[in-house]
Each structure stands twice: as structure tokens, then as C-alpha cells.
């Protein structure tokens, strides 16, 4: 049996190749994501471990939110002298590091990275832990000298002697006097180095300020005991005291969010490849077993029992899984290498020579590849074991074309009803968490039900889809339609691969279109100013920009917006960390705020705040409730709820809870903060177009900020949603690739299966061109059948997703009919492309040899 299995596997290696490609793709994405994330993690672990001081003292921050306030927490630089006297301290260093700044060249172009990495200005000091070394020029001395990192200098064409302008606490020019090169991985940031007094004065506004104090332990002194001594000296209520290991862990945790995005995206691709590949493998093995009915019957007649036949088929699947997993692992290494080089193009210079391939990667790869293939082949293997010895004497097919579909109908109906009930519950639920959970359950169940019941839908749907074939193409059209109807199970499984991808695209297209329409409605409803001035990546900007905007010719009312992380202790006992917003008093003149109780004056008055009405109901908050509020740096106060807002569930002014208060409150408890947006109205007698021209001229030296009106805002939102849609389209592309492989595989095996039939058709006068057309039409109707099922399912999913979004204020439903029509047309094209090779092969058959085929 083993010899027979190996010979059978090698005999059908061409037919199994397409199935192996599905395994290769799924394993490649799994392996690539694991290798890439492991490599980045290991690289940054080394960076953080090698650059962190033995102990670091920094300002206290109990709030986990990373929202940028523009304020740089500082501590007294004189603390370094105090810490130097602690027993076990060898040396202390004052650190100054600021990220809320912009550096521009002589053409007013930012030299910062465009990949989202920060621009950092810091003080130059050479220690054994410095991540850079001076490679040309000299160290900075005085207020007008600076160093620049080599990667940024090369990327932005900056040379020694060039002058740059730093826009930070104050705006000042610097002349580049040297270039510093990274000795470790460059995380993609742009680094500017100043001497310590200049950094303190120009970046922090005080010659006695620092962002942290680095402490070096004396020889033989461990970090942990030294941390305890320093904490006892300075206290832990005002300062955070951390060892090198703790700093490295914190930095790695911050990096984890970035890595998780890449990992989960790639695992999403892997999941789609696995799901679609299952259908392909099931179909392939089912058809191979159907074609080997006589062979399997002969094995049974020679003494092989059911278990041996089943084991033989599963062994073939195991071999296929091993080959596919091995190739997939190799492809995954190549994919990880490509990602590493892609990151280098964005400024994160990872070294391919330090690629990490840990033991979990190959283990996971083989578990996925072999496991998927083995599971997918199990049902066909059971059918193979059911072949009787008498099948060796007949042309019976194991596939059981005429076998009733009652079991499928029953199981599919039960699962479908459960899925429909879950989606109905999703659409009617009043809580977001409940609705989202029911949505996930409903999506899974309805997908399973559609896959199970797919063959039941083949005959009624394809009779409609191919109804015009006989009239348009005559007997060839009639035969193509009947060929698609001949084996509903096979047609359903082939179409299911395409259906999965298109269901995903249909659902996400509806969701994204609904989000865009909802945001458009929300912008029209709430934004009342002529223009909004904002940073390109929504981080705060310097106060100098606010002053310049106010002084711009034609600028009338200017209302500032400033964000801050806060934590509120609510009457129900819960502590919620969120983001709050501070506004100038005349907010009503630039925004349309809906209040259920109170008004803007009550919301923004001294000692008051406003809150989203829905959030307030959930936590037993009423107008007049006194809420303890924690701000950064340990500052605390109590604010009275003066108003409740109803922004359609969007959270009001800020993020969760819609917390907002007057500008005086945020300035008092977050001193040194920066504005995140300016709402500007034209002065009387100045047209908006003229004001825009004046504002753009004023802000030309500040490339980090843009002038936007309502149309610009809408475009910005649409572009951000489009990023999500591009990911979905990429998933669709992968699903289509595998689905095309499935259609090609099915048609190719079907041509082999119908060799004698094709020979007879050719003998009675069917031309080569007619034969090719027949196979292409069969492929098209199968592909369009999959598209119709997928889009119908996707539309239902999309409507339910919109109902979940409606609970968050996005209440507009939009159906992208253009996209749906394009997908259906595209599916027909996919069917034509998939049929090219099988149709060509069929048309080249020798007629007599085909008739004599066994």
C-alpha cells in the first residue's frame, strides 16, 4: 500500500501542484509574519538593552494614554547632582529629549521622516550607551551648532555647513557642524543633537530643566538595589525610577502595537489563504478519487481494507502538506526578507543578516501546512474508503453525482437559521460589545451555512445565470450550463473559494461606504468654521503658529482646541482613562454642538466639564455631579458636570466619554501644552477664498500644518478609510489568485474526467473553437455563481456592520453599487482567464485517443 501510495502521488503530482500552491501561500504568510516580527523584536530588544542607563529617573505619569499634549514633562536638572551622592552611583547625566518639534531646511521643507517615526532633538553627550557616534565634523558647541544623524542627512540631502530651522518651544536656526552615524539599528527617527545648555534653554525653556536623569551604577552594584536607594532618595510619587530592564520592557511594549499591526495583517492574509485553500484541496482530492474509482476498487478486490485505502489517501495529503509547507517556509523567509528591505526604504534599517528564525516558526509552518491539508483531505479519504471492490468493474464515480443532498439541506438550514438569528440580534442590540459579538458569531455561522448549502443553490441559481446561454451560444451554451449543473457538490466547492473573498469585500465595501457617508454627514452637521488648521498627523503644533494665524490678514474668530489624557473616577466606582479636549469660550461660533442638558457656557465654565449623555447614563452621571479628574504629571482636581452632549454616539468633543472643558482648565493642569487644532472664521468683509490664500501664505514656513475646509476634511477621512479598503482589496486579490487556481484545477481535472466524452463530441462535429467556448462558459457561470453568493452574503454582513457602527454614531447606510457591479463583471473575467489553459488542453486532444481513453 505504501508503494502504491507513493506511485499514485508521483503519478498525479501535476494535478496536485495547484493545491500545493494554496498551502505554500498560507504557510508563507504565517512564516513571514513570525520571522519578521521576531527579527524586529530581537533587534529592538538589543537596541533598548544597549542604550538604556542602569537606572533612569523621569517625571511621573500614571496615565497610559499616549495622546500628544505638546507639553514635555520635565524635572530639575539639579536633581542629577543630588543623585550623584547616592551610595552606589558612579555618574549621572542630564538627558534632554523632545519630540514635539519640526525641523525644516532652507526651502521650508520638513526633514523629518514620512513613515510616522518621530523627529527628536536631544542633547549631545558621549557615553558607552550612545546609539550613535560622531563620524564627521565636530561636536556642537553654542546655540547655533548641531549634529544630524547620517540617515536623515543622506535622505534629505543635508550636508555639513547647511542651516536648518528648529520649531520647538521657540524657533531658532542651527548650522550643521557634524554627522552622527547609528552604531545600532536606526529605528527610522530623525535625530538632531544640540549641546546640553542649548537643548535645555531652546527645547525646554529653562537652563535648569531636563526630561530625565541617567544614572550609571558603580562597579559591582546591581540595578535593582540601586533603584531602591534612588527611589528612597527622590520618592515615587513625583518620579518614575526604572532599571535598564524595565525601560527596555516599556519601550518594547510601545513598539508592540506597531508590530501587532503588521503581524495581524499578514496572519489575516494567511487565514484567507488557508480558508480558500481548504476548498481547493477538498475539491482536488474529491475529483482525483472520483477518477480513481476503478483503481481503488481494484485495490479493494486485491485485499485492501477500508482503513488501508483511507490511510493511503491521507498519506498522499500528508506528502502534499509536507512539500507545500517546506516550500511555504522558504517563501516565508523570502517574504520576511522583502519586508525587512521595505522597512529599510522607510528608514528603519534592519539587517537581513540578523534575521531571526526561532524554532516556533518552522513548527507553526508545518502544523499549519500539514494540518490544513490533512483536515481538508479527510472527507475525500472517507469517501475513498467507501469504494466497493465491484467498482473495479464499472465506471461508477465515488463523488456520487446523484446522491441526495438531504443531509446538507438539514445541516445548512440549522446553521443558517442560527447565523441569521445572530445577525438579527446584532442589528437590534443596543450595546456595542453585544452587537459586535453577535456580528462575529453570525458571520462565521452564515459563512459555514452557505458553504454547506452551496450545492443546493447550484441548480436554481445557475439555471438563472446561464439561462441566456442556449439562446446566445446555441447547443454549446446549453452543454456548458448542463456541465456546471452536472455535479452540484463540485460546482459549489469550486465557487466557494471565490465566494469567501467576495463576501469579505462586499461586507467591507458596504462598511467603508457607510463610514464615509456617516463622517460626511457628521462633518456637515458639526463643523461650523470656515477653516481648520491642523498638523498633518494630528499632533500638536507650536504656539508660534497660533500667534501667526491670529495675526493673519482677514482672520476673524480663532478658537483653539487642545487635547490631554485624563482619568476620571465615576459615581459607579469605575476609573476610566480617556482623552479630553479644551476649547476657547466661543465654540458655538465654529461648531454645532447638540446638548441634551446645559449649554456651551456651562460646559466650558471654570471648574466645569461636559460629557456625552450616553456615557453619563452608563455611569450614573448627572448634571451637577462632581467628578475627580487626574491629569498628567499627577495633577488632580474635581470638576462639576455642567452639560451633557449628544453627538450621535460619536463621543462628543473628545474620545470615549466626550469629555470637554474650558481652555483655562487645560492650561492650568497641563501647563506648556500645545494646540492640536485652530478653528478659524473669516473677518467681516473677507471672503473665505481670500482668507485661505492669506493663511496658506502665513503658514508656508510651517510645512507640518495644513489649512482645511469641509471638503478637505471629507477627503482626509475618505483617504484614511481607503487605506482599510486597500487592505481588503489586497485580501481579495489573494483570494482571487487561489480561487483562480481552484477553477483551473477543477476544469483541468474535469477535462481529464470527460476525456472520452470530449472525444465523442469532437467525433460528431464539435469544432475546437466551440469546445473552448463551452469550457470557458462553464468557467464563467461557476465564477459568477460564486460572486453572486459572496456578494449577497457580503451585503448582509455589511449592513450588520453598519448597525454596529450606528451605535457609535455612524448611522448612514451606503451600498457601493458601482463596486458590486464591477466585482460581478470582474468575476466573469476571472472565469474566462481560469478556463484558458484547460480549454486549450481539451481542444488539443487527439479525437481517437480520447474516445479510447479508459
From TrEMBL:
Signal peptide: none annotated. InterPro entries: ABC3_permease_C, MacB_PCD, Macrolide_Exporter_MacB. It is a multi-pass membrane protein. Its main location: membrane. The keyword Transmembrane applies. The keyword Membrane applies. It is found in: Cell membrane. Keywords: Cell membrane, Membrane, Transmembrane, Transmembrane helix. The chain crosses the membrane at residues 264-290, 317-343, 363-381, 409-430, 436-458, 492-515, 723-752, 777-797, 817-837. It holds the Pfam family MacB_PCD. Residues 17-232, 491-697 form the MacB-like periplasmic core domain. Residues 269-389, 731-847 form the ABC3 transporter permease C-terminal domain. It comes from the Bacteria. Belongs to the ABC-4 integral membrane protein family. PANTHER family: ABC TRANSPORTER PERMEASE YTRF, MEMBRANE COMPONENT OF TRANSPORTER-RELATED. This is ABC transporter permease. It comes from Streptomyces mirabilis.
Amino acid at each position: 500500500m505504501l508503494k502504491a501510495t507513493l506511485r499514485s502521488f508521483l503519478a498525479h503530482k501535476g494535478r496536485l501542484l495547484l493545491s500545493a500552491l494554496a498551502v505554500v501561500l498560507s504557510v508563507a504568510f504565517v512564516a513571514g509574519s513570525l520571522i519578521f516580527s521576531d527579527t524586529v523584536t530581537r533587534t529592538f530588544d538589543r537596541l533598548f538593552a544597549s542604550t538604556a542607563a542602569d537606572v533612569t529617573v523621569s517625571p511621573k505619569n500614571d496615565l497610559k494614554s499616549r495622546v500628544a499634549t505638546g507639553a514635555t514633562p520635565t524635572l530639575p536638572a539639579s536633581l542629577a547632582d543630588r543623585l550623584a551622592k547616592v551610595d552606589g552611583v558612579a555618574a549621572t547625566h542630564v538627558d534632554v529629549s523632545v519630540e514635539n518639534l519640526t525641523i525644516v531646511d532652507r526651502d521650508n521643507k520638513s526633514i523629518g521622516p514620512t513613515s510616522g517615526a518621530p523627529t527628536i532633538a536631544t542633547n549631545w553627550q558621549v557615553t558607552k550607551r550612545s546609539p550613535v557616534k560622531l563620524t564627521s565634523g565636530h561636536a556642537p558647541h553654542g546655540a547655533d551648532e548641531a549634529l544630524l544623524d547620517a540617515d536623515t542627512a543622506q535622505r534629505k540631502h543635508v550636508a555639513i555647513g547647511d542651516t536648518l530651522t528648529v520649531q520647538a518651544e521657540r524657533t531658532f536656526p542651527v548650522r550643521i557642524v557634524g554627522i552622527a552615524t547609528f552604531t545600532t539599528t536606526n529605528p527610522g527617527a530623525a535625530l538632531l543633537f544640540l549641546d546640553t545648555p542649548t537643548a535645555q534653554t531652546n527645547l525646554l525653556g529653562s537652563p535648569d530643566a531636563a526630561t530625565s536623569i541617567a544614572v550609571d551604577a558603580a562597579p559591582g552594584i546591581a540595578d535593582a538595589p540601586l533603584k531602591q536607594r534612588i527611589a528612597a532618595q527622590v520618592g515615587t510619587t513625583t518620579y518614575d525610577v526604572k532599571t535598564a530592564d524595565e525601560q527596555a520592557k516599556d519601550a518594547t511594549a510601545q513598539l508592540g502595537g506597531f508590530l501587532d499591526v503588521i503581524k495581524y495583517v499578514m496572519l489575516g492574509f494567511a487565514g484567507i489563504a488557508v480558508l480558500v485553500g481548504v476548498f481547493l484541496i477538498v475539491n482536488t482530492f474529491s475529483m482525483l478519487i472520483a477518477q480513481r474509482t476503478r483503481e481503488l476498487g481494484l485495490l479493494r478486490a486485491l485485499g485492501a481494507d477500508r482503513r488501508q485505502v483511507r490511510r493511503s489517501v491521507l498519506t498522499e495529503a500528508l506528502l502534499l502538506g509536507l512539500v507545500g509547507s517546506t516550500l511555504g517556509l522558504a517563501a516565508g523567509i523570502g517574504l520576511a526578507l522583502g519586508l525587512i528591505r521595505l522597512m529599510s526604504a522607510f528608514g528603519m534599517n534592519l539587517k537581513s543578516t540578523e534575521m531571526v528564525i526561532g524554532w516556533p516558526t518552522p513548527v507553526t509552518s508545518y502544523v499549519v501546512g500539514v494540518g490544513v491539508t490533512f483536515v481538508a483531505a479527510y472527507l475525500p479519504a472517507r469517501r475513498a474508503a467507501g469504494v466497493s471492490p465491484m467498482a473495479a468493474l464499472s465506471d461508477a464515480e465515488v463523488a456520487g453525482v446523484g446522491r441526495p443532498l438531504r443531509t446538507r439541506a438539514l445541516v445548512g438550514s440549522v446553521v443558517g437559521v442560527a447565523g441569521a438569528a445572530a445577525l438579527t440580534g446584532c442589528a437590534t442590540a443596543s450595546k456595542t460589545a453585544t452587537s459586535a459579538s453577535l456580528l462575529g458569531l453570525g458571520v462565521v455561522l452564515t459563512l459555514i451555512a452557505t458553504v454547506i448549502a452551496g450545492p443546493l443553490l447550484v441548480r436554481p441559481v445557475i439555471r438563472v445565470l446561464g439561462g441566456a446561454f442556449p439562446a446566445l451560444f446555441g447547443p454549446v451554451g446549453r452543454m456548458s450550463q448542463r456541465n456546471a449543473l452536472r455535479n452540484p457538490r463540485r460546482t459549489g466547492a469550486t465557487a466557494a473559494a471565490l465566494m469567501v473573498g467576495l463576501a469579505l469585500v462586499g461586507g467591507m465595501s458596504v462598511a467603508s461606504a457607510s463610514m464615509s457617508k456617516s463622517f460626511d454627514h457628521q462633518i456637515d452637521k458639526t463643523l461650523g468654521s470656515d477653516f481648520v488648521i491642523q498638523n498633518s498627523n494630528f499632533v500638536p503644533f507650536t504656539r508660534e503658529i497660533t500667534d501667526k494665524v491670529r495675526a493673519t490678514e482677514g482672520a476673524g474668530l480663532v478658537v483653539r482646541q487642545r487635547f490631554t489624557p485624563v482619568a476620571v473616577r465615576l459615581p459607579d466606582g469605575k476609573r476610566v482613562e480617556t482623552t479630553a479636549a479644551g476649547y476657547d469660550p466661543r465654540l458655538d461660533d465654529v461648531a454645532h454642538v447638540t446638548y441634551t442638558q446645559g449649554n456651551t457656557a456651562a460646559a466650558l465654565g471654570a471648574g466645569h466639564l461636559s460629557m456625552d449623555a450616553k456615557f453619563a447614563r452608563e455611569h450614573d452621571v448627572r448634571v451637577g455631579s462632581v467628578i475627580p479628574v487626574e491629569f498628567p504629571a499627577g495633577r488632580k482636581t474635581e470638576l462639576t458636570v455642567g452639560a451633557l452632549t449628544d453627538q450621535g454616539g460619536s463621543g462628543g468633543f473628545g474620545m470615549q466619554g466626550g469629555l470637554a472643558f474650558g481652555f483655562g482648565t487645560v492650561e492650568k493642569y497641563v501647563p506648556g501644552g500645545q494646540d492640536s487644532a485652530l478653528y478659524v472664521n473669516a473677518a467681516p468683509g473677507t471672503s473665505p477664498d481670500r482668507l485661505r490664500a492669506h493663511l496658506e501664505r502665513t503658514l508656508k514656513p510651517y510645512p507640518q500644518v495644513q489649512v482645511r475646509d469641509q471638503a478637505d476634511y471629507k477627503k482626509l477621512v475618505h483617504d484614511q478609510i481607503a487605506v482599510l479598503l486597500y487592505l481588503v482589496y489586497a485580501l481579495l486579490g489573494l483570494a482571487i489568485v487561489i480561487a483562480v487556481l481552484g477553477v483551473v484545477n477543477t476544469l483541468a481535472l474535469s477535462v481529464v474526467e470527460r476525456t472520452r466524452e470530449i472525444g465523442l463530441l469532437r467525433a460528431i462535429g464539435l469544432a475546437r473553437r466551440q469546445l473552448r467556448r463551452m469550457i470557458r462558459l462553464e468557467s464563467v457561470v461557476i465564477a459568477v455563481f460564486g460572486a453572486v453568493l459572496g456578494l449577497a452574503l457580503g451585503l448582509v454582513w455589511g449592513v450588520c456592520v453598519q448597525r454596529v457602527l450606528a451605535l457609535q454614531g455612524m448611522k448612514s447606510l451606503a451600498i457601493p453599487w458601482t463596486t458590486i457591479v464591477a466585482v460581478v463583471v470582474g468575476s466573469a473575467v476571472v472565469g474566462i482567464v481560469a478556463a484558458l489553459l484547460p480549454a486549450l488542453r481539451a481542444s488539443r486532444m487527439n479525437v481517437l485517443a480520447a474516445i479510447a481513453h479508459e
